[in-house]
Design a protein that fits this description.
Structural class of chain B: mainly alpha
Oligomer: heterodimer
Low-confidence stretches of chain B: none
Number of strands of chain A: 0
Low-confidence stretches of chain A: none
Helix content of chain A: under 10%
Structural class of chain A: little secondary structure
Number of strands of chain B: 0
Distance between the termini of chain A: 24 Å
Strand content of chain A: under 5%
Mean pLDDT of chain B: 95
Distance between the termini of chain B: 40 Å
Strand content of chain B: under 5%
Order of helices and strands of chain B: HHHHHHHH
Largest interface: A-B, 10 and 22 residues
Radius of gyration of chain B: 17 Å
Shape of chain B: globular
Chain lengths: 10, 215
């Protein structure tokens, strides 16, 4: 599957 | 983490500190939209559901807890504190929640990356954050004699959004595979919503006059 959007921001 | 992201987070934190100082210090939430504050609380709850399952860094976890805690406190003060709640401009704060929540929910369901509860709610939070300031901006337009703390609160919040855009531009050029169309689009929309406010904020600052937004 496509990469999940980055969740490293707040 | 780059300097724009850190500065953006600090602006966000500072905006909340300024708001809490106003609310608890002068025991007044005049000019502050409870609707916007409740929408932010909803944004944080739906976005940070992964707080204990998706560990990124101690910094992120602590900041998430701080945002959840402070936004809960603000909503609590405005709704239930027996002195502070008397200063809330309920009659002026008329923006309809549904007008912002419903389109965000529909868009989240239509565009979520994968269809898990966490992912759809996360996407919802991105859309909702983009528009959650609108009840506040409408209330500000209706408020005569906007005090400095309220003006600075909205200014700091807008600065946080602007700095996040610089952060994304920086990451776009420095990181491979950093493509986040959804987050970028919403972030830009959110920042554009502040443009009008920024214009009058700088105007009042330049002319050394009290901030007033034309209706």
């Amino acid at each position: 599957s496509a990469p999940s959007p980055a969740k490293d921001e707040l | 983490m780059n300097v724009f992201r850190l500065a953006g987070d600090m602006m966000h934190l500072l905006s909340i500190v300024v708001l809490l100082l106003k609310i608890t210090g002068i025991k007044s939430c005049r000019g502050i939209s409870l609707k916007t504050q409740e929408l932010y609380l909803l944004v944080f709850i739906t976005r940070y559901l992964d707080i204990f399952t998706n560990f990124v860094s101690l910094y992120n976890t602590v900041m998430k807890l701080v945002f959840l805690g402070t936004s809960s406190a603000i909503v609590y003060y405005m709704r239930y504190d027996r002195i502070i709640k008397l200063t809330y401009d309920k009659e002026q704060d008329t923006f309809k929640y549904l007008l912002l929540v419903a389109p965000s929910a529909v868009l989240a369901l239509a565009t979520s990356h994968v269809y898990t509860v966490l992912e759809v709610l996360w996407t919802f939070s991105i859309y909702l954050e983009a528009v959650a300031i609108m009840p506040q901006l409408v209330l500000l337009q209706r408020t005569q004699n906007i005090d400095n703390l309220t003006g600075n609160y909205v200014f700091l919040l807008g600065s946080y959004r602007g700095l996040y855009i610089l952060n994304w531009i920086y990451r776009f050029f420095t990181e491979k595979h950093y493509r986040q169309w959804l987050v970028w689009t919403c972030g830009v929309v959110q920042t554009i919503i502040y443009c009008d406010f920024f214009y009058y904020y700088f105007l009042s600052w330049q002319n050394n006059e009290k901030l007033a937004l034309p209706a």
